[in-house]
Amino acid sequence: MRTQPTSGDQRLSHAGTPTGNPAVSGARQSPSASVAGRQRAPIEDFGTLVALFRQRRGLSQGQLARAARLSRTYIYHLETGQRYAPSARVARAIVRALELRGEDRQRLAHAFSALTGEQMEDEAEQQDLFDLRELAGLLVHNTAFPAHSLDRLWNITAWNAAAVELFELDTAALATHNQNLLSVVFDPTYRARFRPWETLARRLLVDFKHNTRSLTYLPEYRTLWRSLRTQPDFTRIADSSDPGSTVSPSFVFHMRHSRLGTLALRTTISVFSGAHDYSMVTYVPGDQPTLAIFAANGWQTSANEAAE
Fold this sequence. Notes:
Blueprint: H1 31-37, H2 46-56, H3 61-68, H4 72-80, H5 88-98, H6 102-116, H7 123-126, H8 132-141, E1 147-151, E2 156-159, H9 161-166, H10 171-174, H11 181-185, E3 194-195, H12 197-211, H13 219-228, H14 234-239, E4 252-257, E5 261-272, E6 275-285, H15 288-296, H16 303-307
Antiparallel strand pairs: 1-2, 1-6, 3-4, 4-5, 5-6
Helix pairs in contact: 2-6, 3-4, 3-5
């Protein structure tokens, strides 16, 4: 996808010199930063930092462009100084694609401000807010229904007590186990709980492929996929499960609980508007017998409690 330059973007003139840019060689400066630059230590170059963080993530220019929804040429020009006034929207897209946090995010923000004279962060981002991982965990731990949160590669980032009890999870073992949802479902021992297991596994793989179709370039995706291929039956099912055009927001599956018997569970998925890095999966009763079991175990809010 090629990104058209905004009014704030500057391109090379025919003579090869960036139009309106007083100095490009070395550490590039915006007009608003030139005077301040004489009074304090030089600020890091924005394009150089983008290249540094990109290489640290093991991404090519094309892969970063794809993740940020920019063109590869745009990233090349940005890193080499041929495009020296990106918009704040573009800068934030690069930050998200590189998953910069903490000091690294601040370094790029300061370099952007020095280059353009603008603030990279919007007003909400400047406040000390929870990140999406923390918010997803907060929602998980404050819902009565069994629930867990997932990151964009379906790594489980939080369980609540109801989910641990429902799925009979060994929390001590989980601490050292691969906590990817597919890894749990394909575990040779644990998968015997699901009825029928292969139907569930195939359904999850189809949805996973659809949700991660734009993430296959990531090094962590490739590492995860190699790990999953060591699980019994994973390669066979994965190779015959094509990603669908859409993902159904809910489906029903059955599982066998050692104490409660067979349960019918329906999934519901909650995502943050405009941000899909984290989601919350909630399990609700799929039939009347399971509804009664949930009520008996306190895994839902009763009608009387809701009325209050």
